[in-house]
C-alpha cells in the first residue's frame, strides 16, 4: 500500500513539473498532508 502512495506522489510531481511548476519543499509537505489525511479517513470508513 505504501508503494502505491509513493508511485502516486511521483506521478503528481511529474505532472506538476510538466505544467512548468517546480517541486518545492512546500509541495512535498502538501502531498504528505494529503497522504496523512487519507490514512485518517480510512480509520472512519464504515465497512
TrEMBL record:
Lineage top rank: taxon: Bacteria
Stated name of the protein: Uncharacterized protein
Amino acid at each position: 500500500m505504501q508503494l502505491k502512495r509513493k508511485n502516486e506522489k511521483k506521478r503528481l510531481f511529474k505532472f506538476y513539473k510538466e505544467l512548468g511548476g517546480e517541486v518545492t519543499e512546500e509541495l512535498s509537505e502538501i502531498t504528505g498532508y494529503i497522504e496523512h489525511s487519507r490514512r485518517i479517513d480510512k480509520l472512519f470508513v464504515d465497512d
